[in-house]
Amino acid sequence: MDVIRKNTPTREGMAANKYLAPIAHRFLSPELWRFTRRSVPRGVALGLFAAFIVPIGQIFLAAFLALPSRANVPLAALVTFITNPFTLPFWMVVANRIGEFFLRFDAASASLASATADDGTWAVLMLIYEVGAATLLGCVVLALVTPVIGYFISVWVWRAVVSRKRARRLKAMVGRLDQRLGTQ
Asked: What's the CA gap between 46 and 72, in Å, rounded?
């Protein structure tokens, strides 16, 4: 949790952004910057949605979506980096496989389309359509499924972190109580 807090942008930094200037006053609301049990899962879910639904400008989309849903803005922006330039090819392959699974392009339709064209132009266009449609559908599926998974994982992680902190505090309190009772 401390790593996230150290690397997240500040409220003032986002308010000074020229693209966010028209609505910067909304970003300064303290509730959007607190790490609470409700705002953290919302921020994770919105960040994952924005990461897969649009390839460019995900941070701004996540920040804008975080405003009405009262999600954690810096966490929503940070989670969008799951689709960075280094991991984007991997996610596009995953999206293509998911799209192919749902569209189920079969060899019969592809051979029928290629048989109707004399040259290879039609076959190339069909290939582009198949790959593009499958990848686009896969991105939509990822944008709908990963936020749900991310939401529940972040709820579970939040509860684990909080319960561990409470257990440490309780153990420290019992230790202090034992010291007091032992000295009397």
From this structure: 9
Torsion of CA 35, 36, 42, 44, to 10 degrees: 40
- 89 touches 77 (CB < 8 A): no
**Residue that has been written with the tokens 């980096």 in this structure:** 81
Using an 8 Å Cβ cutoff, are 14 and 73 in contact? yes
Which residue type occupies 13? G
With b for 16 or more beta-carbon neighbours within 10 A and e for fewer, the 120-154 pattern comes to eeebeebeeebeeebbebbbbbbbeebbeebbeeb
| Phi, psi of 178, rounded to the nearest 5 degrees | -65, -40
pTM to 2 decimal places: 0.74
C-alpha to C-alpha distance for 152 and 72, rounded to whole angstroms: 16
The pair phi, psi for residue 162, each rounded to 5°, is: -65, -40
Decide: residue 184, CB within 10 A, 0-12 exposed, 13-18 middle, 19+ buried: exposed
- Give Cα 169 to chain centroid, integer Å: 32
CB 29 within 8 A of CB 116: no
Q: Which helix (H) or strand (E) holds 108?
A: helix 107-116
Judge whether residue 112 has pLDDT over 60: no
- Selected residue with higher pLDDT from 181 and 168: 168
